[in-house]
Design a protein that fits this description.
single chain, about 475 residues, alpha+beta, five-stranded mixed beta sheet, 13 strands, about 10% strand, globular, disordered C terminus, Hypp8155 protein, RT_dom
Length: about 475
Amino acid sequence: MFIAICKQHIPHKLISTTRTAKPWIHSNKQVKEAIRRKHRLHSKAKRVNTDVAWATYKRQRNLVTSLTRRAEAAYIEDLVNDVESGNTRRIFTYAKSALGKTSTGTPALQVGSVILETPDEKANAQNDFFIQQTDLPARDDPTPTFQPTAIPGTVLDSIQLSVDEVRQQLCALKIGKSCGPDNITPKLLRLVADPISGPLTQLYNKSLVLGQVPSGWKKANVTPIHKAGNRHLTNNYRPLSLLSIVSKVLETLVNKRLTAHVNPILTDHQSGFRPLDNTTLQLARMIEEWTEAMDDGDLRKAFDKVWHAGLLSKLRAYGISESMYNWFSSYLFERRQRVVIQGVASDWKSPLAGVPQGSVPGPTLFILYINDLATSCIQSQPNLFADDTSLSSSHHSIQHVVASLNRDLSSVSTWLSQWKLEANIDKCKAMFITTRAIPRPIPPVTLGGTTLLRSVENENKCGN
């Protein structure tokens, strides 16, 4: 109904744009008008074919060249300012474009011996693959007994939102963000923030009181993003989910309450998604501990593998109760997604596990899920950055170091199995740092019965 009213009462104007326009041209009205004038003068010069007409065109052409160069320089200066303020998204987009690495869409996909070429076939095949990644073994198992080492001093059983905070959140929306399946854009929500903030607040509070999330807010349009390797294989793509902006406004407000509630009991070993804590601080912490060994084990597709029943049991243990427990349960279950390729959508399918990709509370829910992982480590020092985990141990004897790591890695392996996660063994490495020669042979460092085959001399730690 909201979209229908907008279509009926908001004037629309179609504006043609040049797909190949550079960003410093696309956003600069003076340059665009100069280019249009150049095109008109060029057409006139060809038509009348006089020296005066050609001279006028050439002056305009030179002006366009000059304006374009100045606009590009100003654009790059803005990018540098963005980086200094912590916003790196635009400069990475610019770098990819300059290096010729812009996306060219999804080519034909090969599934088994079948080649899929139509957008419909590719979208359904890619969605099937993404859904397969959320399947868990024995996900109907009873949840393990969970006793947190610390619990919040209060419970989070209800949330009541005010009209003012909803309006402020609407006005803070970034208009450049893409919309979800409901096609309600952030720009539209910002424009009508004042009149809709009241009704929207009532709708949000109703959802929170009933502990139910509307089904339309649990849908996602998914775009496959190529990671690396053969572009014709579905497993070389990751999902980029576009969710309802209306839902994300509520998610943001709920996540603020959730993080305030659980922040006091989050392990000090976790740095991911937490304010005032980042990879630099984590690296400094590791150096201070005289890291002698490091096992770096990304959890395999960790966000897609979060066991819903296990996460909910931990939320309850952390003081999330009554209507808010029901709200998070509704939020996690019965979600639906479709892959969109070249404007063609796949069939809707439901993920079997995982926190919603692209959602606001997703990262917070994930670090709550693995919050107790660090307690498995008794003889080594754990450091976590979201799903990136490092264990370190120091001793003058390499045999003692390896023994300590292996004992804790065995405990970590048991924890992962218990909570239905798995380490990406292909990314696991062992590093030994010493001022003396390392005695050979190096004792094996093992995880889940597998020897970490790669010992490295240097390792990039979470972007540092």
